Amino acid sequence: MKILLVYPNYKDTFWSFDRILKLLGKRAAFPPLGLLTVASMMPKEWEKKLIDMNTDILKDEHIKWADYIFISAMIVQKEEVKKIIDLAKGAGKKVVAGGPLFTTGWEDFKNVDHMFLGEVEDTFPEFIDDLENNCLKKIYSGKDFPDIKKSAAPDWDLIKLVNYDSMCMQFSRGCPFNCEFCDVVQLNGRVPRLKTTGQVIGELQTLYEKGWRGGVFFVDDNLIGNKAKLKNDYLPAIIKWQKEKKYPFVFTTQVSINLADDPELIKLMADAYFITVFIGIETPDADSLEECGKNQNKNRDLVGSVKTIQNMGLTVSGGFIVGFDSDKASIFNSQIEFIQKSGVVTAMVGLLNVLPRTRLYQRLKDARRLIGKSSGNNTKSNLNFIPKMDRDVLINGYKRVLSTIYSPKQYYGRIKTLLKEYRPIHFKAPKLSLYNIRALLSSFWLLGIIQKGRWHYWKLITWSLIRKPRLFPNVVGFTLMGMHLRELPY
Ligand code: B12
Ligand code: SF4
User: Fold this and answer.
1) 151 within 8 A of 125, measured Cβ to Cβ
2) φ/ψ of residue 57, rounded to 5
3) Quick one: pLDDT at residue 320?
4) SS3 390
5) Cα distance between residue 31 and residue 164, in whole Å
6) What integer pLDDT is reported at residue 168 of this predicted model?
7) Cys-Cys crosslink for 346: which of 267, 317, 448, 485, Cβ 3.0 to 4.6 Å?
8) Is any ligand 1 atom within 6 A of the Cβ of residue 55?
């Protein structure tokens, strides 16, 4: 059996980092972990090829070679998916699809031959049996969320690790919260399910043996969904492993803001060499937090919480949203002010986006306020619902937030605010690698010589070299990120 696994393009989005990655000699930010995991569940005798269209070109000959085309995708890849399905069907091939796009929007893909809804640890063995017995079903959907202690380790041999900026791993699935706009609860449930410590260390070890050094993104919905296990088992084991191996990996992940309430946990994460956490901060407006059910963000000093985390050694990137029903005309200024004060350098501000099968979707559908399907890309100025605020005021206000916070003056100012708070635990002198040299030269050349905002750039560079020399590599990274943010089409 010949299986072609295809991961569609997600270019020109907040997370694609196209231009910076090219400058650094990388082709994509992260590998497609879902497909690599499914590939591991296949019988050994099946031949497999993976084309990640973010790193390689899908050619007719790939499709010709395969018996089955397996596709994985998020909503933002929907249009690309349709093209791939057409190509495959045109060549008379069978298409098998899975991942969040299909789990929450399977109705839109009538011409897919076999569709997996949800996680597949329980259903994929059934598919293999049905294939052998020639009785394949159209839809495979598990009754319960699977135990991820059964989840296979990803098949890293299907990709070239060097093409990517960071590797991905998963420790848990699910999130204990239930924010109105989020589909994680529908996709992965509210009770975090965890891998064993052995599985996690085993996966780190495999990546290490395959020669990987550098970034590893724990793609958990919320890494701190089960704090006790994390503190008592996993983090101590990771810290020990990292120490023994002389800290080959730096970790990033996603957490909820209540991390700030647990200094012991922050310290353990920083000890393990977590360097950045992405947090859904969403909005400084108390009524909007109430409206979207972001309970963990309510009744707290949000700026103070961010600073606590920064002070203890982790930088915070944040997700912000405008377009809630409770948002007042002042929301745009309050978002700008909040983002500047908090030193959240990588601030992803999006327009509220109504994802299918969320509580928000149901509420707005009942109120007849839905006007289209979500493109999944929350940083484009297209609304798929009728907002309470005047539409033009909302979109113009949104664009103003972006042009302000990413402007060189504000952006570099925010880096300085962060550096004053940030106290990392580990310091590694940067290696004289091609990657680092390319980063430094690109930053100096493009931002210090070619692009606008040069005065603010050199002010920051000089200040950081004098006052925070050890954090200079972080500064270079942030300046390049700023270039990506300014160039995104909104
Ligand atoms: C890593 C990640 C990314 C990476 C993707 C890189 C990559 N190469 O994969 C990046 C950072 C680029 C990204 C970006 C975005 N992401 Co994202 N991302 C994730 C995250 C955190 C992990 C994905 C992952 O690796 N999971 C681990 C694997 C093992 O799980 P899995 O993919 O679900 O696979 C399992 C099954 O689904 C199934 N499966 C998957 N594919 C296939 C294929 C076949 C054929 C079969 C049989 C089975 C199968 O098998 C696996 C084992 O059970 C998920 C959340 C999550 N927990 O999954 C969100 C998630 C996928 N992202 C999401 C969103 C919304 C986005 C953004 C739009 C966010 C934003 N607000 O901007 C952007 C899109 C791009 C943009 N606008 O800039 C949503 C998708 C919603 C949807 N219904 O499509 C998710 C679910 C999170 C959420 N609820 O918000 N994301
Ligand atoms: S905390 Fe994050 S992952 Fe959990 S429900 Fe809210 S938005 Fe979704």
Assistant:
1) no
2) -95, 135
3) 98
4) coil
5) 7
6) 98
7) 317
8) no
pTM for the model: 0.96
At residue 380, the pLDDT reads 66
Residues 6+ apart with CB under 8 A from 263: 308, 312
Mean pLDDT, range 263-283, rounded to an integer: 98
- Find tokens 């042009």 and name the residue: 403
Class of residue 346 by CB neighbours under 10 A (exposed 0-12, middle 13-18, buried 19+): buried
Nearest to 255 by CA among 176, 180, 353, 185: 176
Task: Name residues whose C-beta falls within 8 Å of residue 426's C-beta, 6 or more positions apart in sequence.
Answer: 247, 270, 273
Quote the ligand 2 centre to 52 CA distance (angstroms). 27
Ligand 2 atom with minimal separation from the 185 CA: 5
Could you tell me the domains of the chain? 2-17+25-141 (3.40.50.280), 148-421 (3.80.30.20), 434-487 (no CATH)
Q: What is the pLDDT of residues 300-345, one digit of tens each?
A: 999 999 999 999 999 999 999 999 999 999 999 999 999 999 999 9
Average pLDDT, stretch 236-249? Answer: 98
What are φ and ψ of residue 79, in 5° steps?
Answer: -65, -40
Ligand 2 centre to CA of 179 (Å) is 6
Answer yes or no: are the C-beta atoms of 118 and 103 closer than 8 Å. yes
User: Letter for the amino acid at 89?
Assistant: K
Contact 281 CB / ligand 1 (< 6 Å): no
